[in-house]
Amino acid sequence: MAKRTVEVDVDEHGAFNGAELKQQGVVSYDQPLLSTATARSAITYIDGDAGILRYRGYPIEQIAERLHFLQVAYLLAHGELAPEDERQSFRRAVYDAEVDVERIDAHVNSFPVDSHPMAILISGYAALGASHPEAKHVKDAEMRKRLFPLVLAETLELGARAIARHAGVEPGRQTGDSYARRFLEVCGDAIDRARGEEAVEVFGRALDVLFVLHADHELNAGTNAMRAIGSAETDMYSSLAGAAAALYGPLHGGANEAVLRMLDSIGSLDNVAGYIERVKTHEVLLYGFGHRVYKNYDPRATVIKKVVDEVLETAGANPLLDIAQELERIALEDDYFVSRKLYPNVDFYSGIAYRAIGFDPATFTVLFAVARTVGWLCHYDELMSGEFKITRPAQVYVGKGERPVPKRA
Ligand code: SDX
Prior knowledge:
Blueprint: H1 19-23, E1 44-47, E2 52-55, E3 58-59, H2 60-66, H3 69-78, H4 84-95, H5 101-109, H6 117-130, H7 141-167, H8 179-187, H9 197-214, H10 221-230, H11 236-247, H12 255-266, H13 272-280, H14 299-315, H15 319-333, H16 335-339, H17 346-357, H18 364-385
Antiparallel strand pairs: 1-2, 2-3
Helix pairs in contact: 2-9, 3-18, 4-7, 5-6, 5-7, 6-7, 6-11, 7-8, 7-18, 8-9, 9-14, 9-17, 9-18, 10-11, 10-18, 11-18, 12-17, 14-17
Bound molecules: s-citryldethia Coenzyme A.
């Protein structure tokens, strides 16, 4: 390997312009984009070593305690907390948005009853785009601002109806006073209503916190996909379909569903040690653990653990929590995990809360996507508001050199 030295100018953020490499005749091979920034963003800040997460500068722990989901949506979109009058008008803009519910219903019902709800959601974003040709004017900031509350309202109906469809129940009507509560209403009997209205109130408050915690997370795979697709000047609806498809993977937003299936497969405390051994031989993953950025506890996992306690107080104890806590106890002590800095991430406990509310594990990633729609739209808007070029990575070619096609091919 020929060693070469290249000189680049590093700025105050510790970043240099990748074009300087090309000018010096080299490219960086970085498939996971481990040390390649694809955006300059002011939306979310993460310090993975310190376990810090801030939305527009506000610490996630305080946001989760003091703000509702639509307040967070406004903050992420506008960069500042909404003044009281704006707060009400933004809520009304979402709750009174003209959502074509019949069209969403027809889309959802065109799928067989037990279809995975993420298939319905992913295709649903693209289907919604067909009725919003105005979204193709991607550089129109006023259009993006006008569509923002509408897309949140459409996503509420689409996500909740996909969940109801998967459960084979009729969707309900929105009447509640929060986005999360209205979402639960449209889910109908796909959640546990056996414990009465008070319990559903508790579930609504818990879901609101979970939506807040999942709203944005800097340049994760789904959000990077949103920006990469948007860089081709694709409309926001089609870009959302791509972002949701990236989120669906079990290494990303599909992990919450994978955690529940893992806990179910372990089945009892007696089997935990055996599962850990299988993780160490790389036979299985410890889903809900590890993170590309957090090499410390994911601050969202800490908040979610409290949400789980509150939900289980109402919904009743869940033996899966004991298995999860035993997995965590072992992993936080065992050098295999400690040496790799593997800690619980946002997906480790969220599934237990969702399950206690009555959601089927197949619906968990829809819950993640509904909340993350805010972050995807905000990153898309940030991209469209500035200068950008289409995302088209370089390649390291390792294939054959030129050769002639045989005359008698
Ligand atoms: C989310 O990016 C975001 O911000 C995402 C997210 C968001 O809000 O958008 O936070 C949401 O996606 C959270 C992550 C959910 N995924 C999971 O819980 C799936 C399980 N986790 C792993 O697949 C993994 O930890 C990743 C994908 C999350 C991160 O992978 P990296 O950064 O590529 O780390 P790696 O694969 O290089 O792992 C380093 C070492 C390896 O071991 P060695 O090869 O050195 O022996 O740690 C091991 C890995 O095998 N490892 C794990 C593990 N995670 C990493 N071993 C067992 N179980 C795991 N979960």
